Amino acid sequence: MAALEVRNLHKRYGHHVAVDNISFSVEEGEIFGIIGPNGAGKTTTVESIAGLRTPDSGSISVLGLDPVKDRAEVRERLGVQLQESSFPDAIKVAEALELYSSFYRDPADWRELMELLGLAEKHKTRYKALSGGQKQRLSIALALVGNPKVAILDELTTGLDPQARRDTWSLIERVRDTGVTILLVTHFMDEAERLSDRIAVIDGGRVAAVDTPEGLIAQVSPVQQVRFRVSQPLDRRVLTELPDVSNVEITEGRWLVTGRGQLLSSVAGALARAQVVAEDLRVDQRNLDDAFVAFTGRAPESPGPRQEEG
Amino acid sequence: MLTRMNMIKVETKLFLRDSATVIFGVLFPTGLLLGLGAIPALREPSPETGGLRPIDIWAPTALVFGMVMIAVQHVPAVVATYRERGILRRLSTTPADPRKVLLAQMMVAFASVVVSAALMISLAWAVLEIAPPERHLKFVVAFLVGYAALLGLGMISAAVVRTSSAANQTGTVLFVALMFFGGAFLPRVLMPDTLREVGEFIPPGLQALTAAWSAEAGEITGTAGGQPFWLQIAIMTVIAAIASGIAAKLFRWE
């Protein structure tokens, strides 16, 4: 059974269609990323899974339960870290954790969680006095305090500095290693690429693609290029005969090899067999940004001020 | 049960950490009364008021001050903040019911009004020799329905405002209007009859509170055309019921 299954989800607000037929499923123990431009329908999808919105049509299953009909049971088992939600200014870290843990039937040990998230020293600090990273970690801790099987993390690292982002990422990987299935909503491509086992690209309320990060990149730019220089003479047939290679250009000792598949390792292997040393070896690396542009026709948003999202 | 106790515990701590509300909502009414009581002229018995001192007749206004402060300023501001900051939304993703948090918050706020009133009544008695409320049942009933009517108005404001700053502004306007009829700017005894009669319909019902506190003071602040005590109570009950109904109807969780 999939941990999370969304089938033919539709949701409109008045005349605005926020979600127009979204389907995907998340396997147990997976980190599943959702990326897409602002207004693509990410937040509506996530809010529907969390039971905060009732879909117009389609079905959602969280561990086999319906977020609307089995509301109480889903809330016991689903941890949620929401974008644009916070806590009272004057509440202290330990108080928030203790309060939230009392909501659940079988909560995690909140003191342990506080340690794990590096908040133990701040346990008497008021929410208002926490740094952005600490607030975010508290929010993650509160999403996990109910011992959830599935956790939704929406815009996890927005507003964090680079070090705090990397710390948060390794924390999420540790959480996944404890067996929690994670649905990660983000508009940071590096975050999605680093953490996700699979990614759904959502655009205009629809799923544009679902694949592994590498798969998405390969889908949009199957063509790869490797450049290098050689000091010794080399027969171009050494490379043109390789199945992955489609073209070889040589200009003034610079080689440009075009191909697909495992191009780099094929080329490197062939050069090694020919006992030729390549210098200045470079691969034209495509990344998730390129895939995002190809699927949505828009450039991914750079880290900056948060925007309203429907 | 554990959840409820925890919510009340946390809401109590949050209330106590909000020093402006503790000072103005809980301590200020007592301070105000003691401050005015320090003015000799207000402690002079007057034959026109049947030998009562101005401070005896005015004391219920200090009580109303604390009630209004908490019901129309503090509670709506907290509720609006909880909504604006997504605190209610966050809660509704947990097994806890966000309604319970609002209930816990209102219980704590009401407890603070009771503490504020008890403090004021006992210090007024000890320091200014103002006798404590003499008609116990009537006083408790007038206090409860009066507060309920105020809270109903406060919750309408909390239901319709979008932001916590809008809640504060609405709260201030309501506070000034209600405190006018509460006798903070012009003592009720000096108001023209029409205003006094209208005042019987304005929460929390200063006339009912005054009459329940001291029958003599009630006679002086009442008018010939005024409603009898239990009718005033009925009016407040109706206002409380209608206002809470409207607030519940209009309330938005997000």
Walk me through what this model shows:
The complex is a heterodimer of chains A (310) and B (254). With 310 residues, chain A is α/β, with parallel strands linked by helices. Chain A has eleven helices and 13 strands. In chain A, α8 (213-220) packs across α11. Chain A is elongated, with a radius of gyration of 23 Å. Residues 304-310 of chain A have low confidence and may be disordered. The longest helix of chain B is centred in the first third of the chain and has 31 residues, at 54-84. In chain B, α3 packs antiparallel against α5 (98-128) and α6 (136-160) packs parallel to α11. Chain B is globular, with a radius of gyration of 19 Å. The model of chain B has no long low-confidence stretch (mean pLDDT 94).
Q: What descriptive keywords fit this protein?
A:
heterodimer, A: 310 residues, Rossmann fold, Alpha-Beta Plaits, six-stranded mixed beta sheet, four-stranded antiparallel beta sheet, 11 helices, elongated, B: 254 residues
- Average the pLDDT over all residues of chain B and give the rounded result: 94
Fraction in beta strands of chain A: 25-35%
Radius of gyration based on Cα positions of chain B: 19 Å
Q: Compute the gyration radius of chain A: what is it?
A: 23 Å
Number of contiguous helices of chain B: 11
Quaternary structure classification? heterodimer
Low-confidence stretches of chain B: none
